[in-house]
Design goal:
Layout: H1 15-22, E1 26-30, E2 33-36, H2 38-57, E3 61-62, E4 68-70, H3 71-77, H4 80-84, E5 92-94, E6 100-103, H5 108-118, E7 127-136, E8 151-161, H6 164-184, E9 189-193, E10 203-210, E11 216-221, E12 227-229, E13 249-252, H7 259-266, E14 274-283, E15 289-296, H8 303-314, E16 318-323, H9 326-331, E17 362-366, H10 367-370, E18 375-378, E19 384-389, H11 391-394, E20 399-401, E21 420-435, H12 437-442, E22 445-447, E23 453-455, E24 457-464, H13 465-475, E25 477-478, E26 481-482, E27 493-497, H14 503-518, E28 523-526, H15 532-542, E29 546-550, E30 558-563, E31 568-573, H16 577-585
Parallel strand pairs: 3-7, 15-17, 17-20, 27-28, 27-29
Antiparallel strand pairs: 1-2, 4-6, 5-6, 7-8, 8-24, 9-10, 10-21, 11-12, 11-21, 13-19, 14-15, 14-16, 18-19, 21-24, 22-23, 25-26, 29-30, 30-31
C-alpha cells in the first residue's frame, strides 16, 4: 500500500513530520496519536531489531511488562499525585471495582516491585531486564508528529545491582551499546550531560540527534569535550561591569518591568542589576512555600536547577514551583506587592496576611548575584530603585546556588579558553543511574553477602524508538524527500518498471526483483500503472536508498542505478545489479 501526498498537510510544522505524512508513513488519528502505516512499521521493526541485538549483546534479558499499572505502586514511590494531577502526564482511570489504574508512561514502579519478588540474593545480581512496547503520556501540547506524541514506542531497560560500583559498570556498558545502536541506525548523535527530571537518580546522560528542529538546546565547548542540555549545563558567565558611582541612593524610576528599559533610562548594563523573582513551591501535605530569588540582570533563571535546589534545601517532595502573580497574591489577602520594584530585602511582614502559605520567604540567589559588590535593585516601593546598594546595606546575603541558565558565549568550566556554542537537539535516548530511589521507596530488598537485607542499586535506560525514526528523517532529507540510512530504510532497493506496457521492461523488472530477493536484499517492486515521472518522484519522496530503473535499455539488459543519498546515477548491466546494491548498502 503506497499512498503519497503532493500537498503538505496543514498540521505539519517541521520537515520530518511533513515528509512522513506525504510519504505515506504515518496518518494522524487525533491530536498526538498516529497510525504507523506499512512503510513506517517496516522502519520501526528494523530499529527494534537493531536495539534487540545490541541489548542482547550486553546480556540484558527481554521481557514485556503490563501497560496498565495499579495506583498503589505509584503511591509508594510518591509519584502518583505528580503524574496524575494538575499538569501530570499519566492517563489514569478506574476499573469496575473502582480501583485506580494508570496507563504506563514509564515502568520503574512495576519492574522494581517484580524484582523485589524474584531477586532475593546478591548471587542473582547484576541483572538487566528490557522491553519494547507502547507508552502513553498525556502531553500538554502534542506537536511535531512522533517527536512529542501521546502514544509512542519505547525501549526501556532496568538494571539491578548489589552495589554502586556494579551499577556504574553497567551504566558504562549501556553507554557504549547506545552509541553502537545509533551508529547502526545511521544517526549523528551527541551524548550530553542531562538532568534526571521526574525519573530521578544521581546521574544521567541524554543522546541527542543534532537538528535545527530540535526542542532541546545543547551547549557544547568549541572542541566538543563538554556537552550538556541547557537544563543541566554549567558555565562561567561573563564578568559584571562594576558600577562607577559608589554612592548609595534611592531614585525614582518609571520601570516597565523590563531590564532593558531600566538600563536605557539609567544608562546601566544588565550585569549591574539584581532582579528579583517571586515563586511559590507547592509541597506535599505542607503549606506552600513562597520563594524570593535574586538573579543578576543579564542572567535567566533555570527552573530545573531551581526545582532541584529547592527540593534539596527543603528536603521534601515538591509537587511544582510556579510564579507568584498579582492574581494569587489577591487570593491570599496580602497587600499589593511592588512588582517591578521588588528588592532582595523584601520584608517577610508582607506575608503576614497569608492564610494558607508559609509566612516567611525562602531566600535563594544565584552566584552571579551574590558575587556583586555593588548593584542596582528594587527599593520595594513602586517606581523606586536603590542605586549602588550592597549586601551589607540591605541585609545578609541569601543562600547562593547555581540556578542560572548557562548561555552560548559563556566560558567552559573545564577550559576557560573555550566558549560554549549552542546547538538544537532531539532526544532519542536517555540513561540514568537511579541509585536506590525506587527500591527504598517500594521496600524491595535483597540479601547481601553478610546475610542482611539491603535495597537494590538500580539503573534505567530508554530509547524512543518511534521518535528515533522521525529524528532520522529530520537529519536525513533533501528537497525531494527522505534519504533513509540503509539499515533502517523500509526497503534497501526499489525496482521501478518505467513502462508497464513494454514486455521487455516488465520481464526484466520482475526478474531483477526476484534476483535481489534471492540474494537477501530487501527489495520493493514498483509495478504500478503510473507514469514513470510519478514513480520516480514517489521513490525520492519515500527515500529508499537505491533505485533500479528498468527503462528503454531493458532490451540490452541494462538498467539505471540511482543512489538516493548522493543523487548520482549510472547505467549498469543486469548482471552487476546485486553486487552494486550490496556494495552501496555496505553488506558483507
Amino acid at each position: 500500500m503506497l499512498v503519497t501526498l503532493r500537498e503538505v498537510p496543514a498540521d505539519a510544522e517541521i520537515s520530518s513530520h511533513k515528509l512522513l505524512l506525504r510519504g505515506g508513513y504515518i496518518r494522524r488519528v487525533t491530536s498526538g496519536i498516529y497510525a504507523y502505516l506499512p512503510l513506517m512499521w517496516r522502519v520501526l521493526k528494523k530499529i527494534i531489531a537493531i536495539v534487540q541485538e545490541e541489548m542482547d549483546s550486553t546480556g540484558a534479558l527481554e521481557t514485556l511488562l503490563p501497560q496498565l499499572q495499579p495506583s498503589e505502586l505509584w503511591e509508594k514511590s510518591g509519584r502518583w499525585q505528580g503524574y496524575t494531577e494538575g499538569e501530570g502526564i499519566m492517563f489514569n482511570l478506574k476499573d469496575r471495582q473502582k480501583r485506580r489504574l494508570g496507563l504506563g508512561p514509564t515502568h520503574e514502579e512495576v519492574i522494581t516491585s517484580l524484582a523485589g519478588e524474584m531477586l532475593r540474593s546478591y548471587r542473582q545480581l547484576p541483572i538487566t531486564l528490557y522491553q519494547t512496547q507502547t507508552k502513553f503520556r498525556d502531553e500538554i501540547r502534542p506537536r511535531f508528529g512522533l517527536m512529542r506524541s501521546r502514544e509512542f514506542i519505547m525501549k526501556d531497560a532496568y538494571s539491578f545491582h548489589s552495589n554502586e560500583k556494579s551499577l556504574k559498570k553497567t551504566y558504562e556498558v549501556m553507554d557504549e551499546a547506545y552509541k553502537r545502536i545509533f551508529k547502526r541506525c545511521g544517526l549523528n548523535v551527541l551524548p550530553v550531560d542531562a538532568d534526571s527530571g521526574a525519573i530521578g537518580g544521581v546521574a544521567s546522560q541524554e543522546f541527542m540527534v543534532t537538528a535545527e528542529a530540535g526542542e532541546d538546546l545543547i551547549l557544547t565547548s568549541e572542541d566538543s569535550s563538554y556537552a550538556a542540555n541547557q537544563e543541566k549545563a554549567v558555565s562561567i558567565p561573563k564578568e559584571a561591569i562594576p558600577l562607577v558611582n559608589p554612592r548609595e541612593s534611592i531614585i525614582k524610576t518609571n520601570f516597565s518591568g523590563k531590564i532593558e528599559d531600566l538600563c536605557l533610562s539609567l544608562e546601566l548594563d544588565p550585569s549591574q542589576i539584581i532582579k528579583v523573582i517571586l515563586m511559590l513551591a507547592i509541597i506535599e501535605e505542607e503549606k506552600p512555600q513562597p520563594i524570593l530569588i535574586s538573579l543578576r540582570g543579564d542572567q535567566q533563571l533555570n527552573e530545573v536547577k531551581l526545582f532541584n535546589t529547592i527540593t534539596s534545601v527543603l528536603k521534601t517532595r515538591i509537587i511544582e514551583i510556579s510564579p507568584i502573580t498579582p492574581e494569587n497574591i489577591n487570593l491570599e489577602c496580602l497587600p499589593p506587592l511592588p512588582f517591578g520594584s521588588i528588592g532582595p530585602d523584601l520584608s517577610d511582614e508582607i506575608l503576614a496576611g497569608a492564610k494558607t502559605w508559609s509566612t516567611k520567604f525562602l531566600r535563594v540567589a544565584d552566584y552571579t548575584a551574590t558575587n556583586l559588590e555593588s548593584f542596582v535593585c528594587g527599593a520595594n516601593e513602586i517606581h523606586r530603585h536603590k542605586v549602588c546598594a550592597n549586601w551589607e546595606s540591605i541585609g545578609n546575603k541569601p543562600q547562593a546556588f547555581d540556578i542560572r541558565k548557562a548561555q552560548a558565549g559563556d566560558k567552559c568550566i573545564h577550559n576557560k579558553n573555550q566558549k560554549l556554542l549552542a546547538k538544537r537537539g532531539i532526544e532519542v535516548g536517555h540513561i540514568f543511574q537511579l541509585g536506590r530511589k525506587y527500591s527504598e521507596a517500594l521496600g524491595t530488598n535483597f540479601t547481601n553477602e553478610s546475610g542482611a537485607l539491603e535495597a537494590f542499586w538500580m539503573g534505567c535506560y530508554g530509547i524512543g524508538v518511534s521518535r528515533l525514526a522521525q529524528a532520522a528523517v529530520e537529519q536525513n532529507h533533501d528537497e525531494a524527500g527522505i534519504c533513509w540510512p540503509s539499515n533502517i530504510a523500509p526497503f534497501e532497493a526499489i525496482v521501478v518498471i518505467a513502462n508497464m506496457k513494454d514486455s521487455n521492461q516488465l520481464d526484466l523488472g520482475e526478474k531483477l526483483y526476484q534476483v535481489l530477493k534471492d540474494n537477501k536484499v530487501d527489495a520493493l517492486l514498483d509495478d504500478r500503472q503510473e507514469r514513470a515521472g510519478v514513480k520516480f518522484k514517489d521513490a525520492d519522496l519515500i527515500g529508499i536508498p537505491i533505485r533500479i530503473v528498468v527503462g528503454r535499455d531493458a532490451k540490452e539488459g541494462n538498467v539505471e542505478f540511482w543512489d538516493r543519498s548522493s543523487r548520482t546515477s549510472k547505467l549498469i548491466n543486469e548482471n552487476s545489479v546485486v553486487s552494486e546494491v550490496i556494495s552501496v548498502i555496505g553488506r558483507d
